[in-house]
Structure formats: structure tokens, C-alpha cells
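Agenda item 2: zinc ion complex prediction
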Amino acid sequence: MRQIRIGDITIDAVIEREGPWRRPQDFFPAYDDAIFKGHLSSMEPEVFDVAEGKMNITYQTFVVRSPRHTILVDTCTGEDKGHAAPFDFPGKERWRNELFALGVSYEQIDYVFCTHLHIDHTGWNTTLRDGRWVPTFPNAKYIFHKREYAVWEAEHAKGANPPGTVFRDNCLPIVEAGQALLVDDDYALDDTITLTPTPGHSPCHCCVNIHSKGQRAVVTGDMMHHAIQTRELHWSPGVDWDPKQAAESRKTFLSSVADTPTLLLPIHFPAPTVGLVTADGANRFHYRFKRD
Ligand SMILES: [Zn+2]
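Presented output:
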């Protein structure tokens, strides 16, 4: 993604991986081949690899720089986590190389927002040092939704997977280091960064709003994973905490931004990633990349 500007704020993408990743029939329980193929011509060509029959899925972090703060939103899967394939793979240094190429060091990060506490949104939160997981960004406060944290804490205590080791290795060490801010729906960092609750994919999933000088962009996390979900709102991934609530969140959120200049930054959408939403009747939307 090329750098975008929202008033006084710049937003860049730092990529961990990209390219064809999952077959839609494996990801969406409601998948219907004829329906999916019927929507292909109305979706941007980058979102699906026709030859491989797989969705193009990127793992990326957004680097948000305001005059006051340097902020990361979501932190991919990270290094050395010991996850089974496909979440651990060679070449993850791409992520930190791209961050450093922006002129951003770990020490410069002031805040890390996690839209939710899943494996691919919390990975770089921590680094393995002398056998212990420590916060990667020593000067940052990490923003976790307090009820999201509480649910995964309870699930971890039960031995559930998810969260598996994700809570223990990516979230708990941040709290133990005193670097977590456990926040509620109405949290605002300042007048530029606020949250919009979009629960369903996870218990308290939140989108992160970026406002400046009358402009708005929204990091939409996993409110949707693929553009097909703007065409078929009820196609929720099998991994969703509450698939019905996730579909309701999609409808509410997409209705609120459709036909407005609000720019969307969905974590898993392939380059050029940033886009605009238009309504197509009451229950469908189009996602168009902003290419200029
Ligand atoms: Zn994700």
C-alpha cells in the first residue's frame, strides 16, 4: 500500500506475508460456488487468485504517525512463536525490515492497538529473549479491550484453543510488564484515535478510527477478511466467536461508511488495500480500492 494521509496523520503498511492463502470453500461455512463465482466480476481482481483458486490474503500492520504519536495497529503473527504451519513460516524478518525502512525503531512506538487478540494480530507484541517473552516495543502502551482480554484469559485458564499459547505468549507478558491499557468501547487516545466496537469475529473486536482535519480512515481489523463479505454479509468464517453477530456488525458498520469519503484499511485485504465502500441495495456493498 502506498502511504496515505489523513489530515496531519500518515498511514503506512508493513507486510509480514501476502499472496494466495486460503480456499474460500475452506474458510466460509456458507460458501456456495455459484454465488462466489457470480460475484467475481464485481470484485477487484487483486482479491482472488483464479489460477490457484485461493483468496489473496495479506498479513500487515498499519503504522500511524501523527504529530504527537507513532502507533501500530495489529501486529501479525510474529517470530519464534512455535505455531504449526501455516502461521509460522520462514521470512518473517520482512516485517521488521519494512518497519525499519520507514525510519521507525521499536523504541519509537508509543502505542500498539490490537483490534482483537487473535494469533495474527498480536504476534509482534512480544519477542523471545533469554527464553522469556518480553514486550517488543519497550516504550509503548498496548491497547487491549478489557472484556476481550478477560474472555481469552478465561479460555486460556480452561486450556481452550483458541487462544492456545497466543494469550500466554502475546498478551499476558504485556500486562505483566505493566504496559497494557485495558480499555472499554468508548476509549479515545485523543481527538484523533477512537474505537468502534464491531463484535462477532471475536468477543469484543474493535475497529480503530483515525481522524484528522475532517478526514477519517478506519482500520477494520477482521470485521471482514475478504471482499466477498461485502457482497454476502452473512459469510462469516468458521473461526468466528459469534458468526451471526459478526454479520450484524458488518452490516451496521458498512452501512455507516457506505457512500462517504471514509477510507477503510482491512488488515487482510491485498495491496492496494485501502478502499471505499458504496451501497448496492440494502444488503450488499461494493469495496473499491482507492488507486490514486
Ligand atoms: Zn486476522
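Discussion summary: The two ends are 11 Å apart (CA to CA).
Owner for follow-up: CH.
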